[in-house]
From TrEMBL:
GO CC list: mitochondrial large ribosomal subunit
Coiled coil ranges: 136-163
Keyword set, alphabetical order: Coiled coil, Mitochondrion, Ribonucleoprotein, Ribosomal protein, Transit peptide
The protein, known as: Large ribosomal subunit protein mL40
Gene3D superfamilies, A to Z: 6.10.250.3440
Organism: Seriola lalandi dorsalis
Top-level division of the source organism's lineage: Eukaryota
Subcellular location: Mitochondrion
UniProt entry tagged with the keyword Transferase: no
Family from the record: Belongs to the mitochondrion-specific ribosomal protein mL40 family.
Length: 204
């Protein structure tokens, strides 16, 4: 198709050429092209497109209205249903743990072992009682000495007495580790921290 069109244009352009006059003894031919035609090199052809615009589907207005009504009804139903709260499993005791028959059997100790444990508990109780009494006595002695020192200071100078009653800001921040029931185990190896995540995912 494009080749036939090019040949036809070449024939038409060849007919439009005219010879010029002889100038200064030289035979010159000037080719004049009609302004209605363009050179062959400037022509560009493209493949034919056999397509047509897509036709719009005709939508029935009644059917469209019915679909909108259905969506409105669904939205109303969703608004009436209250939102479901995600349960906190940490606050719910499993049923398996509420079974009264699920009890751990206590190991049976011999008479010597049970007697030794009872004596050890008594000695430990006496030791802690003596330690508590010594601490309370030391606190009472310190408070009594402080009271006497403040009374003597008040007699010497009222300004120094008032300054001594003010809290000492250098005592804070105060950090202290409480007593432990057992001493730390130096040979204890901490676990790597691997665990299986069994958290349930709830979707609404």
């Amino acid at each position: 198709m494009s080749g036939a069109l090019s040949r036809c244009l070449c024939r038409v352009m060849a007919r439009q050429t005219v010879p010029s006059s002889f100038l200064s003894g030289e035979h010159q031919h000037a080719v004049t092209v009609s302004p209605w035609f363009a050179p062959v090199m400037t022509l560009k052809t493209s493949a034919p497109l056999r397509a047509e615009p897509k036709k719009k589907k005709k939508v029935d207005p009644r059917r469209e209205q019915v679909m909108k009504d259905r969506l409105r009804k669904k939205l109303r139903k969703l608004q009436k249903v209250p939102p479901e709260y995600i349960p906190i499993e940490d606050f719910v005791t499993p049923v398996s743990c509420m079974d009264e028959t699920r009890q751990r059997s206590r190991p049976r100790l011999s008479f010597d072992e049970s007697d030794g444990r009872a004596l050890l508990l008594k000695e430990w109780s006496l030791y802690k009682q003596k330690q508590h009494m010594d601490e309370m006595k030391a606190v009472e002695v310190a408070l009594e000495a402080q009271r006497e020192a403040l009374d003597e200071l008040k007699l010497e100078s009222e300004e120094l007495y008032q300054a001594a009653l003010k809290p000492d800001p250098l005592l804070f921040p105060f950090s202290h580790e409480g007593p432990a029931y057992t001493p730390p185990n130096s040979t204890y190896e901490a676990p790597d921290g691997k665990y299986n995540d069994i958290t349930k995912v709830y979707t609404q």
